[in-house]
């Protein structure tokens, strides 16, 4: 077995103004001597693949090495999918498909590739980990009980022999990883994983030695850990990732999580505990929505920490350095993990150590990074950082042919284009018709569930100022003024206009668009508000939540079979829980056909059955947008280099707008 040991990385010296102090104290976790208390947990984000062609493998390693180069001494590494039980002809789906056939550990490229990866990490005097994962219910499970409210596919109940086989597969997978040079192994025992399904009384209803009592429910995991320790002796570091509270009826809560921790510490087999909350769906997702404050469950982590003397790690929406510092300084955790914050800015640690926290590009919890893939089949991306996943590509350089660029529109696309083009050496001017930057994102930021949005707008404004980009607010562009500007290139990032759905009665005095309602430029809404949604994104949910918070009785209607189909399971649970707690009534399959003074007529989206909602004081339309491209079309015949981007081209997720801006800037 390969055993590589080396001197730990030396943290960059703290500069005056740095928020981080206690977080930079050294700590020992198992066999790892770490110079500070910040780490990068295992996750599936980023570009590339461990077992694909060489270029995609380079993409994966370079993504992780960017975190090492930023100063992180311990990276959790990619997810390691353990082989599932399967039979000939069965077609695995979902996360289960990632562990089909041989599983990643038995892939013919795994050992060599992981060794190369480990060598690169070790060359920087840092530590590399991997996580053992096998998703429950894909199709195997200890019992037939469902773990959540959104996935009701039938399962295969494991036999005793199959359980023994899975245990041995976990042990062998850990041994393969350790032999490849891995420094730490983490057993994933939460987020609907097979191990959690055995631990939880919700999903383990067995009446044999692997179910029923506390000790029996613990047996599956205990056998895995004991087997790994016998097969892979120290100095390998072995940890356990647990949900402090499953937030599911019938699941376990913090008291039982603490009991798990005490049991494994007593066994002497575990070196650390990595704690978060929730699961894949429900009111609390482990990829937490921005409506929850940063570090919201750190206090619970501090409570759980009292159960053990081993290092306790906290993971759960930590964006700003002061949040990480507070959690560690208050003793709520020994270490804090960051993922989305580093996707938004892979130089997070460098900037904070330099005392330049305002320069950190913020994560605003859009969750586009995961919903692009899970809902639309798109590649990895970040709404606030269009450079995410480009670690293998050449750095942004200065253009060989600088041009003068006029950007019309100061929303996400316009601000990103103006700043990136200026960084490339172009002479940029930005015109914004409104009195503030941000476009419709700034309007959305006024909703209580979207408060983090303003962080990115403020950061972008500081970025433009630092680049000396002349930015003119209240400057409404016209054809003549654009042509008279003398710009070599003109880019229209003029956003979108609220779409009118064409419902008879939509221009009645008591009917208003969402933007006007948020800005408070409508007549008083009255007590009972009907929200008509023809928008697949989060806006109908956010607007309804905001109106309910103001004391209105809100009914929200969708034409679709479910609410906001482009809001994935990692965000929608928190939003729906908030709406229900506020008394918002949701009606689906409801197509508005006519608005009257005192009622709205509907038809069922599929059967066409007619019905009405009466006693409505106001109607709010959240019906998407239409590209505001009239000025672009007017200028296009008269200027040789004109571009259209962002919502002005086609309203989509923020990742679309910022990526289009970045790509255009790279072409100039």
TL;DR?
The protein is of the alpha/beta class and 668 residues long.
Name a few traits of the molecule.
alpha/beta; TIM Barrel; FAD/NAD(P)-binding domain; 3 domains; nine-stranded parallel beta sheet; five-stranded parallel beta sheet
Rounded mean pLDDT score:
93
DSSP helix count?
A: 20
Low-confidence stretches: 1-12
State the share of residues found in helices, binned by percent: 25-40%
Q: For this structure, what is the CATH class of the largest domain?
A: Alpha Beta
Number of strands: 28
CATH topology grouping of the largest domain: TIM Barrel
How does the helix and strand content classify structurally? alpha/beta
Question: Termini distance?
Answer: 52 Å
Strand percentage lies at 15-25%
- Main pleated-sheet profile: 9 strands, parallel
Question: What's the CATH architecture name of the largest domain?
Answer: Alpha-Beta Barrel
Number of domains: 3
Silhouette? globular
């Amino acid at each position: 077995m390969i055993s590589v040991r080396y001197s730990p990385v030396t943290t960059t010296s703290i500069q005056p103004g740095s928020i981080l102090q206690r977080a930079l104290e050294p700590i020992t976790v198992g066999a790892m001597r770490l110079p500070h208390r910040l780490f990068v947990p295992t996750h599936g984000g980023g570009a590339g693949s461990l077992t694909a062609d060489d270029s995609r493998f380079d993409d994966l390693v370079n993504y992780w090495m960017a975190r090492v180069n930023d100063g992180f001494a311990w990276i959790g590494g990619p997810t390691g999918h353990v082989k599932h039980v399967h039979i000939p002809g069965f077609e695995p789906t979902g996360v289960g498909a990632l562990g089909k056939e041989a599983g990643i550990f038995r892939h013919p490229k795994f050992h060599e590739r992981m060794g190369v990866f480990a060598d690169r990490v070790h060359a920087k005097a840092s530590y590399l980990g991997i996580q053992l994962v096998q998703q429950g219910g894909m199709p195997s499970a200890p019992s037939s009980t469902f773990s959540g409210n959104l996935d009701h596919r039938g399962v295969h109940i494991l036999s005793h022999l199959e359980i023994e086989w899975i245990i041995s597969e976990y042990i062998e997978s850990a041994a393969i990883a350790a032999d490849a040079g891995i420094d730490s192994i983490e057993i994933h025992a939460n987020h609907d994983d097979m191990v959690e399904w055995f631990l939880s009384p919700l999903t383990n209803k067995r009446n044999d030695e692997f179910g029923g009592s506390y000790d029996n429910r613990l047996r599956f995991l205990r056998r895995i850990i004991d087997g790994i320790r016998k097969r892979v002796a120290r100095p390998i570091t072995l940890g356990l990732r647990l949900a402090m509270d499953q937030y599911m009826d019938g699941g376990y809560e913090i008291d039982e999580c603490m009991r798990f921790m005490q049991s494994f510490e007593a066994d002497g087999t575990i070196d650390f505990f990595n704690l978060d909350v929730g699961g894949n769906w429900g009111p609390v997702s482990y990829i937490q929505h921005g409506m929850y404050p940063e570090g919201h469950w750190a206090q619970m982590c501090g409570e759980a920490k009292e159960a053990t003397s081993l290092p306790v790690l906290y993971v759960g929406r930590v964006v700003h350095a002061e949040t990480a510092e507070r959690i560690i300084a208050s003793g709520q955790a020994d270490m804090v993990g960051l993922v989305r914050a580093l996707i938004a800015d892979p130089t997070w640690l460098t900037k904070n150590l330099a005392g330049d926290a305002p320069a950190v590009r913020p994560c605003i919890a859009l969750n586009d990074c995961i919903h692009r893939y899970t809902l639309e089949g798109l590649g990895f991306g970040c709404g606030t950082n269009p450079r995410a996943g480009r670690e293998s590509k050449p750095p942004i350089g200065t253009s060989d042919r600088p041009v003068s660029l006029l950007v019309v529109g100061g929303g996400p696309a316009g601000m990103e284009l103006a700043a990136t083009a200026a960084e490339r050496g172009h002479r940029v001017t930005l015109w914004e018709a409104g009195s503030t930057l941000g476009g419709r994102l700034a309007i959305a930021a006024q909703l209580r569930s979207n408060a983090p949005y303003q962080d990115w707008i403020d950061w972008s404004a500081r970025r433009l100022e630092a680049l000396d980009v002349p930015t003119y607010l209240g400057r409404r562009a016209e054809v003549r003024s654009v042509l008279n500007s003398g710009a070599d290139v003109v880019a229209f990032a003029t956003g979108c206009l609220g779409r009118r759905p064409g419902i008879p009665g939509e221009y009645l005095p008591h009917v208003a668009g969402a933007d006007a309602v948020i800005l408070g430029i409508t007549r008083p809404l009255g007590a009972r508000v009907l929200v008509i949604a023809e928008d697949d994104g989060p806006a109908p949910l956010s607007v309804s939540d905001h109106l309910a918070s103001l004391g209105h009785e809100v009914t929200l209607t969708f034409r679709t079979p479910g609410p906001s189909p482009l809001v994935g399971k990692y965000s929608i649970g928190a939003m729906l829980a908030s709406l229900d707690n506020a008394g918002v009534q949701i009606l689906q399959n409801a197509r508005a056909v006519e608005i009257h003074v005192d009622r709205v007529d509907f038809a069922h989206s599929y059967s066409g059955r007619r019905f009405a909602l009466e006693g409505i004081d106001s109607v709010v339309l959240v019906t998407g947008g239409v590209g505001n491209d009239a000025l672009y079309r007017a200028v296009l015949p008269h200027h040789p280099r004109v571009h259209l981007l962002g919502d002005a081209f086609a309203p989509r997720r923020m990742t679309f707008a910022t990526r289009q801006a970045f790509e255009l800037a790279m072409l100039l």
